[in-house]
């Protein structure tokens, strides 16, 4: 694997890490009915229980080194769901709260999400510097040859 493809795999992983962290932060307050409650609230008159969207399911990035193949190098990042994906939270005013006033809130750790953003930032900068150094080295080699 070339230096550029290794650095670009790091840039892609950092970009994915930012995207996932931003999504988790933006949806931290997107609650829904507890799965055990079936998502039904009290219906006024019609006898049909309204349905509500489920709580946001937070994501995480798993990043591992790419070690397979004849020329290993770089990194591979995959997205998976956080488990458990929700925590019970008290919100009796929500229309989908169960009889105890509980709703499902996404299991998002804001401190961890900001750590993920910082990690992505420094990873992106480091991989960009590798590409910059490679380009400068090639320019110098071309100057020597002419």
TrEMBL record:
Belongs to the flagella basal body rod proteins family. It comes from the Bacteria. Keywords: Bacterial flagellum, Cell projection, Cilium, Flagellum. Residues 100-143 form the Flagellar basal-body/hook protein C-terminal domain. This is Flagellar biosynthesis protein FlgC. One of its GO terms (biological process) is bacterial-type flagellum-dependent swarming motility. It comes from Bradyrhizobium forestalis. Residues 5-33 form the Flagellar basal body rod protein N-terminal domain. It is found in: Bacterial flagellum basal body.
């Amino acid at each position: 694997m070339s230096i550029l493809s290794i650095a670009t795999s790091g840039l892609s992983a950092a970009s994915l890490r930012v995207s996932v962290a931003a999504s988790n932060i933006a949806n931290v307050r997107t609650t829904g009915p507890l799965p055990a409650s079936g998502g039904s609230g009290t219906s006024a008159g019609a006898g049909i229980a309204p349905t509500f969207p489920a709580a946001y399911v937070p994501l995480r990035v798993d990043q591992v080194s790419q070690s397979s193949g004849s020329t290993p190098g770089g990194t591979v990042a995959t997205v998976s769901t956080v488990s458990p994906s929700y925590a019970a939270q008290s919100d009796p005013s929500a229309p989908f709260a169960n009889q105890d006033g509980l709703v499902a809130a996404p299991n998002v750790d804001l401190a961890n999400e900001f750590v993920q953003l910082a990690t992505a930032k420094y990873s992106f900068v480091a991989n960009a510097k590798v590409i910059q150094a490679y380009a400068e080295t090639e320019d110098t080699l071309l100057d020597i040859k002419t």
